[in-house]
Design goal:
mainly alpha; 72% helix
């Protein structure tokens, strides 16, 4: 295939896939993968790396959100120019060389994809273990059953998978928003958002504010990870030239607002000294502590429900998105041909 034909194929919107994902479905894939259990504890790492300065920690959450949004805008441009399944595999092929795209896709197939899905599934079962008497073997068996069930369900078409993703995202947001709004309205602490203590910390530790921000943003970026997965299913998005960038902007922008407000809500409930004491004692689940304070004994149940739903959405989102990269490698002719086959009825890669 010559270069002109190759570019023409990548830019046209005709496809064998079913374009069943709308804007909300796209937002659900992004939010479903991005918003995980980390919302309840990653704030501790950000605070720790900013010298326990509340104002600087919130700035870092916003900076990480803006970095993710800028990345999302770049992906929106790539996705509208080349609305094909495979995401970064396609982009790396075109920008550099097919070897680079294949290396990224093969690494994800061998380690990154299954490793991430397994880790999230085990973590989900560990949360349930605190409510049910389940052995270590039971946790692993439950995780395997979950992965197999999600995989089988996703074989019945992207419309069904997208619907579950949308429902799970809404369901996971309910407990998170309940905790956040309760904390914002009930919390009586007035957090000190000045940067004075950060300057003092920087001088005492022979560092700089910029270095502290850089380290803290790395921690907060982990919470934003996952937005790249939407482009993997670009070939299944309705009107991708409009809906793909819209879903990326709404999804990443909304998560940025949620993360910033949630961490501010924590500071509204827990006095700064208590936060510092918890982190120093390696009790990192600040969100859980807030839920227990504002909701009483029901707080732990609300948080656990939120964590389970969040991880379920993350697992389903990865099971939905990742096979499209392997499809793209096979379609390029660099991977097993069977991976490029779509189900004759449901039009999803099944191998």
């Amino acid at each position: 295939m010559n270069h002109e034909n190759r570019i023409s194929e990548l830019t046209q919107e005709q496809t064998e896939f079913k374009r069943d994902i709308g804007v909300f479905g796209g937002v659900s894939i992004i939010g479903g993968i991005m918003i995980g259990s980390g919302i309840f504890y990653l704030g501790s790492y950000v605070l720790e790396r900013t010298g326990m300065n509340s104002g600087l920690a919130l700035i870092c959450w916003i900076i990480a959100g803006l970095i993710s949004l800028f990345g999302g805008l770049c992906y929106a441009e790539l996705g509208t120019a080349m609305p094909k399944a495979g995401g970064r595999v396609i982009y790396l092929n075109e920008a550099f060389h097919p070897v680079v795209g294949f290396t990224a896709g093969f690494t994800d197939w061998l380690i990154g994809g299954p490793g991430s899905i397994a880790a999230v599934s085990i973590a989900l079962m560990n949360v349930l273990q605190s409510f049910f008497d389940v052995s270590a073997f039971g946790v692993k068996a439950g995780a395997i059953v979950l992965i197999v069930a999600l995989t089988v369900y996703n074989l019945f078409g992207v419309k069904a998978a997208s619907m579950v993703q949308s429902l799970s995202m809404v369901a996971k947001l309910v407990p998170v928003i309940i905790v956040m709004l309760a904390a914002l309205f009930v919390g009586s602490v007035s957090p000190d958002l000045s940067l004075e203590s950060a300057n003092t910390y920087a001088e005492a530790n022979d560092t700089s504010i910029l270095a502290m921000v850089a380290m803290a943003v790395v921690a907060s970026l982990w919470a934003y990870e996952g937005w790249t997965n939407l482009n993997t299913v670009a070939e299944e998005i309705k009107n991708p030239k409009r809906n793909l960038p819209l879903a990326l902007i709404i999804g990443i922008g909304g998560v940025t607002v949620l993360y910033t407000l949630f961490n501010f809500a924590i500071m509204k409930v827990l006095p700064h000294d208590e936060i510092v004491s918890m982190i120093n004692n390696e009790d990192l689940y600040l969100g859980t502590a807030v839920a227990k304070k504002v909701l009483g004994s029901a707080g732990a149940i609300v948080v656990s429900a939120g964590m389970v739903l969040a991880m379920f959405g993350t697992a389903n989102g990865m099971v939905l998105a990742q096979p499209r990269m392997y499809y793209a490698m096979a379609e390029e002719g660099h991977f097993f041909k069977s991976f490029a086959k779509l189900h004759p009825k449901y039009k999803v890669p099944t191998v």
